[in-house]
Amino acid sequence: MSVDQLQPTKQAPGRAGAKLWGTAWPKLLAIALVLAIWQLVHLSGWKKAILPGPGTVLSNLWDQARTGLLWHAIGTTVQRALAGFALAVLIGFVTGALVSRIRPLRAAVGSLITGLQTLPSIAWFPFAIILFGISTSAIMFVIVLGAAPSVANGLIAGVDYTPPLLLRAGKMMGLRKISLYRYLILPASLPAFVAGLRQGWAFAWRSLMAGELLVVIANKPSLGVLLSTDQDQADMASATSIIIVILVLGIAVHTLFSLADRAIRRRWGLDLQT
Amino acid sequence: MTSTVTQARAAVRLSGVSKVFGRGANAVRALDDVSLDVATGEFTCLIGASGCGKSTLLSLVAGLEQPTAGEIGVAARQVALMFQEPALFPWLTAQGNVELALRARGASKSERRHRAAELLDLVRLGGFGAKRPHELSGGMRQRVALARSLAQDADVLLMDEPFGALDAMTRDLLHDELDRIRDGHQFTVLFVTHNVREAVRLGDRVVLMSSHPGRVAGEFAVPIPRPRRIDSAPVAELAASITDRLREEMSSHVG
């Protein structure tokens, strides 16, 4: 198995196919470049005993993909990521909504949220492990602490930057308190909120990976557990395969956020390309 | 359209209204002892150089700000305010923008849909309901804003240089539309502009304001029968005499 596998087998006819090809080829080119450089490094003989070439790694990945273990691990990790992120979004949203509307609360915890956002969430693990033991709860705890501040700050920024003119127009229409929030401030905050979600996701994903490496739960395979097993067995080909899996998952989610962002831009008329 | 409406009942009454922004040495007196009556159904234009407090006056009548001194009486079910910018919500369609104003009044879903379509027809935007604000021209956006103001079922419409950002031809067209719409609904209008001809073209009465601080400096009835044209001789003549007064005011203040 090698590079030729990554090339499209055939191009769908019509405009949709051409468009897909138009967005796909730079990415395929990038992948080909990375593989080429990797192959060159491998051929140069640098750390040859330790570093596997792309052929070895891709065939290892293929082998792993045919066993249930990798998919089981992906399932566990993705499930944790979604659950942790959902919880973080819920908590971040409620916190952001309260902090942006209640002035004393804002004075009290506004800077605390920003402080938490800059705190590397991995620093919470000793705290979480003492609190929850070696358990999924410890990982969830750190994901929420890592992601919720970004989500809250995204919403707060959106509320703060609601154009005053639109607020005046809304108030003149008779929108008050909850209806003002529901029909004006929240929709107006959407772009900043989505930016906050995206950043929150990045923090959640990092926290999760750190968590799975530090909090190894027995008989519960996850991507982190597979990685840490590879480390113990000095299995470089497998470790590299897992990194590729993590990378692909990250890119997939990033693409979803980009699509959401682009949809909003198009709706609002912020898309200059049209 | 009939000529000047004179009714005893004032829709808007300002008595001795002052507005000061800031405190102490930095205080700015935007309005000073302004008294003004706007009769029900009357179209009153406020003109003056920038800094005469025209927009402040509208914000006070709209209830968006409170006067420092004096009293403001508004005898209206509902007051609507139109800005120089359309201030449409970019996440909603034209129809959605109008419907939101109806929703704020508690209209039912079918009522909202029906009435919004009707209002878009009224401002000649039937068929553009599904467009988003960024897909419409400046004039069309201002039409949507007008439809949204009308959706509030206001009997007093405050307009803060609503056509100031439009090109002359679009503006003339919207003047005609405003006349036509007011033929059907005799709402009271308080219209702020710095364009004297526009004021004479539209108003039953033109109120001249002086600057720093804003005061009422003079009033002119506009006894020109409708329909009017902005480039007709009577409009131009009256506008010229008001402009002369405006210049006197400005030179005596700026010095």
Question: Can you characterise this structure?
Answer:
The complex is a heterodimer of chains A (274) and B (255). Chain A is built from ten helices and no strands. Chain A is an all-alpha fold and 274 residues long. Chain A has a single domain, classed as MetI-like fold (Orthogonal Bundle). Residues 1-12 of chain A have low confidence and may be disordered. In chain B, strands 5-6-7-3-8-9 form a six-stranded mixed beta sheet, sandwiched between helices. A three-stranded antiparallel beta sheet of chain B has the order 2-1-4, with helices on one face. In chain B, strand 8 (205-210) and strand 9 form a beta hairpin. Chain B is globular and about 55 Å long. The model of chain B is unreliable at 1-7 (pLDDT under 50). At the A-B interface, helix 7 and helix 8 of A face strand 5 and helix 2 of B.
Per-chain topology:
The complex is a heterodimer of chains A (about 270) and B (about 260).
Chain A: H1 14-44, H2 54-65, H3 68-101, H4 103-118, H5 125-132, H6 136-160, H7 164-173, H8 177-214, H9 223-233, H10 236-268
Chain B: E1 10-21, E2 28-39, E3 43-47, H1 54-62, E4 69-74, E5 79-82, H2 94-104, H3 109-122, H4 138-151, E6 156-160, H5 168-184, E7 188-193, H6 196-202, E8 205-210, E9 215-221, H7 233-254
Parallel strand pairs in B: 3-7, 3-8, 5-6, 6-7
Antiparallel strand pairs in B: 1-2, 1-4, 8-9
Helix pairs in contact in B: 2-3, 2-4, 3-4, 6-7
Short description:
The complex is a heterodimer of chains A (274) and B (255). Chain A has 274 residues and is mostly helical.
